[in-house]
Amino acid sequence: MKKFILGRVRSIGYAFTGFFFLIRTEHAIISQLILAGIFTGLGFYVEISREEWIWQVLAIGLVLSTESLNTAIENICDFIHPDFNTKIGTIKDIASGAVTFAALTAMIIAGLIYIPYFLE
Ligand SMILES: Nc1ncnc2c1ncn2[C@@H]1O[C@H](COP(=O)(O)OP(=O)(O)OP(=O)(O)O)[C@@H](O)[C@H]1O
C-alpha cells in the first residue's frame, strides 16, 4: 500500500514537471493560455451562467490537453527522426489535425455561449 501511494505521488510529481515545462517553454501552449485568459475575462465581463462556465472550462481544457499531446508527438518525431521524412511529416500533420478538431469544437462552443449575449 505504501509503495502504491509513493508511486502515485511520484507520478503526480512527473505530471506537474510536464505541466510546468509546457507552460514555460511551449509557444503554442502559451498562446492558448493567453486566449484562455481572454475568454475567462470575457466570461466575467458578460457574466455568463454557471453552465456556460462549465462548457467554457471544458473547451479550454480540451484545447490545452490536445495541444500538449500534439507537442509530445512532435517531440517524439523529432527525437526518433530529426531529418526530413514524409511519414514523419504526415504524423505531425495528423497530430495537428487533432488540435484543429479541438479548436473548432471550442470555437463552436464559444459561438454558442457569446453570440446570444452580443445579439442582446
Ligand atoms: N521531419 C520532418 N519531415 C517532414 N515534414 C516535417 C518534419 N518536421 C516538420 N514537418 C512538417 O512541418 C509541419 C510543422 O512541424 P513542426 O514540428 O514545426 O510543428 P509546428 O506545428 O510548427 O509546431 P510548434 O510551433 O509547436 O513547433 C508538420 O506538420 C509537417 O508537415
Automatic annotation (TrEMBL):
It holds the Pfam family DAGK_prokar. Its main location: membrane. It is found in: Cell membrane. The keyword Phosphoprotein does not apply. CDD domains: UDPK_IM_like. Keywords: ATP-binding, Cell membrane, Kinase, Lipid biosynthesis, Lipid metabolism, Magnesium, Membrane, Metal-binding, Nucleotide-binding, Phospholipid biosynthesis, Phospholipid metabolism, Transferase, Transmembrane, Transmembrane helix. ATP binds at Y14, E26, E74, K92, D93. It is a multi-pass membrane protein. The keyword Cytoplasm does not apply. One of its GO terms (biological process) is phospholipid biosynthetic process. Belongs to the bacterial diacylglycerol kinase family. This is Diacylglycerol kinase. It comes from Algoriphagus sanaruensis.
